[in-house]
Each structure stands twice: as structure tokens, then as C-alpha cells.
Design brief:
With 363 residues, the chain is of the alpha/beta class. It is built from 15 helices and 14 strands. The protein is globular, with a radius of gyration of 20 Å.
């Protein structure tokens, strides 16, 4: 294989894409570790570690943003518990998990009159989660969908407008499933006509049957990198649980990759910013949140080298090409069909995890 063809191999493209994100993260974390006096300490997801996002804020405010990356609310809260009060200033958190931080007494109410709440897509304000006791503790900054990602040169895009395609014999052996139980269970719920917010233990047998049908059609069930790689390299043609966060970042290298919001709907994910009550730098922390929520900050966050996603601010300063990749103009229609992640109580959550494990182990 020539150097030119190797560089354009889909797997090489994906590794470059993920590697760039990791490299950016390592750079920022290294700088953070070397800093003696932190200006702003942020617990973040990898999309906030991109220097292209942080440097304009640092230069405009003459501050240093020190970041620590984590995955999942539980991991983030564990870091906070192991830290001293005042160690952290801001945190990225799943919008639906903002109340968990409030219950622990971690977050400071945000001044609504100093935030562009009127510019947010109404469906992603997530006031049921981001507002607690009449006070706003989080603001949604980015969102997207767990839905169907696909190669439009290998499948009929019209088929991707229905979740029924995921269990169709037409695509048997051409499907990968993202190995994360909540969003895929949510997709299974939509496929059988259930609302994600209303799932109960009585729904588990029907959900399990739908998941087993998906599994029977799948070539693999894999974590995020494995499932993305399978789609990018052509090992599979469809990714269950994929969305713009998979396809958008690779669109320039592989414009055949796309996503759909089927007629039954999709599972909406969203992430928020919160400020710590014990922050020693609340003025700078608020400026950072304001920057991230500004049209310029939103565009940089939406197109971060780690993963793309929809900006919550409808006035994000995206280029026409970036809007096309994210299907920006279709968002009102997409959001009308989207439903939130299932949010089971502890007992139901355990039963869902057990059901997922049984699905994975099924032959």
C-alpha cells in the first residue's frame, strides 16, 4: 500500500481523528499540570480540551484554563469528592444529572439575566433538570442524538427513516451496535412504540425481545471506538446508537457517512455547564460559561476535534458547510421527534443493565 493510499485508508483517517483529539487533550493537561497558580480549573469532557476552543478565551481574558478530563457523571463526581473545596470552578455534566450535583450541594445558581437563554433551542433548555427549586444550576451547551449512523452509498437512505430497518433481513450482518445500554434501550423502546420517560419493569420483556432481534442482525456490539471504526472502515454499513457525533467529524474524509432521525424518533443527549459553589474564581468562571455559550464559543465547541455535536445556541457562528454536516436547519423537526435518555430509578437501572448483559451474552 502506498503512503498516499495508506493515509486515505478509512481506519487511518479515524485513528488520525481520534489521535488529534487525544493529543490536544494531553497538551492541555500537561500545561495544567505545570501551572503553579491556576486561573480557572475545569472538569470537562474531551471536547473542551481542544486548544482551538480554549486559547481564544485565555488570550481575551489573560487567564489560564486548566482542565481535567473525565467520562461519565459518576467519574466526575468521584473526582470532586476526592478534591478540596475550591479546587474546581466549572464542570461539564449530563444535563439530566445536574440535580445530582445540586443534591450534593456542589453547584452555584447561575444568573439567568447574564446568559443567552432566549437563543437556546427550546427543547434543549432541559429546565426539568437544569433548574432545581426555581434556580438555574446548569445551562445546556451541546446536544445530539443516539440514532442510526450509516453509509449512504451502502444502504438505502429511505430505509434509515424507520427503526424497523435495524431488524430487517435486508441488513443482516451489516449492523454494529454501540455498547451503551441506556441509549440503545431507548431506541428499542421507540421501536416498539414506548416512551423513554415512561419505561417500567413491565416493559423489560418486550425491550429484551427487541434488543435480541437487533443483536441477531448485528455483526458486532462494541464500545465507541470499535463501533465507529467498523462503520468508518466499511466493516458494517449501519451503527445503532450512532449519530452526528460519529459521522460529522469524519464527514470531510468520508462524506458517505450520514445519520437519520427515523419516524419513530431518536434518543436525545445533552451536556451542560455548571459552576461550583466553592469556586474561588466565580467571576472568571461565569465569563468562561458566557464564552462557551456565545455564538463563537458554541461554533468552536460544536466542531471540537474530539467530537462534533449540535450547539445549544441557535445563533452559533457555524459556517454553511458545518451547518450542512450537522443538519442544523433540520433540528426543529428532529427535536420534535426526539426523546430523552431513559432515567430509571436504581432498581430499574440494575434490571436494565442485567437485561443488557443477557443480550450481549446471547448466542
Amino acid at each position: 500500500m502506498s503512503a498516499r493510499s495508506a493515509a486515505n485508508n478509512p481506519l487511518s483517517i479515524l485513528k488520525r481523528h481520534l489521535g488529534a483529539a487525544c493529543g490536544a487533550t494531553a497538551l492541555v493537561l500537561s500545561a495544567a499540570g505545570a501551572s503553579q497558580a491556576a486561573d480557572l480549573n475545569a472538569l470537562i469532557w474531551c471536547d473542551h480540551a481542544d486548544p482551538a476552543l480554549l486559547q481564544p478565551f485565555e488570550e481575551a481574558n489573560n487567564v489560564k484554563v486548566n482542565v481535567k478530563e473525565f467520562e461519565g457523571t459518576g467519574a466526575g463526581l468521584a473526582i470532586v469528592e476526592q478534591s478540596q473545596p475550591g479546587d474546581w470552578d466549572v464542570m461539564v455534566i449530563d444535563s439530566i444529572d445536574v440535580p445530582r450535583g445540586v443534591e450534593k450541594g456542589l453547584f452555584e445558581p447561575l444568573p439567568e439575566d447574564k446568559l443567552p437563554l432566549g437563543d437556546l433551542f427550546p427543547q434543549v433548555k432541559m429546565d426539568n433538570s437544569t433548574v432545581v427549586g426555581g434556580k438555574r444550576y446548569g445551562i445546556t451547551e451541546k446536544f445530539g442524538y443516539n440514532t442510526i449512523g450509516f453509509d449512504k452509498t451502502k444502504v438505502d437512505p429511505a430505509d434509515m427513516q424507520s427503526l424497523a430497518s435495524l431488524t430487517s433481513d435486508k441488513y443482516k450482518g451489516k449492523v454494529a451496535i454501540y455498547d451503551y445500554y441506556l441509549p440503545v434501550i431507548g431506541m428499542a423502546a421507540l421501536a416498539i412504540g414506548k416512551k423513554t420517560a415512561e419505561l417500567t419493569e413491565a416493559d423489560l420483556p418486550a425491550l429484551k425481545a427487541e434488543l435480541l432481534k437487533m443483536k441477531a442482525n448485528a455483526k458486532l456490539v462494541g464500545e465507541v471506538t470499535a463501533s465507529q471504526t467498523a462503520l468508518a472502515t466499511g466493516e458494517v454499513d449501519i451503527l445503532v446508537g450512532g449519530g452526528e457525533w460519529v459521522t460529522a467529524g469524519l464527514a470531510k474524509e468520508n462524506p458517505a457517512l450520514d445519520f437519520s432521525i427515523p419516524k419513530e424518533g431518536a434518543v436525545l443527549w445533552s451536556q451542560s455547564l455548571a459552576m461550583f459553589k466553592d469556586s474561588k474564581n466565580k467571576d472568571v468562571a461565569l465569563k468562561f460559561i458566557q464564552y462557551i455559550m456565545s455564538p463563537e464559543g458554541q461554533a468552536r465547541l460544536a466542531t471540537s476535534s474530539c467530537y462534533w455535536g449540535m450547539p445549544a445556541n441557535s445563533k452559533a457562528a457555524l459556517t454553511d458547510d458545518q451547518k450542512k454536516i450537522l443538519r442544523f436547519d433540520e433540528q426543529p423537526e428532529f427535536l420534535a421527534r426526539a426523546q430523552a435518555y431513559p432515567a430509571p430509578n436504581t432498581d430499574l437501572d440494575k434490571k436494565m443493565q442485567d437485561m443488557w448483559t443477557e443480550m450481549l451474552q446471547a448466542q
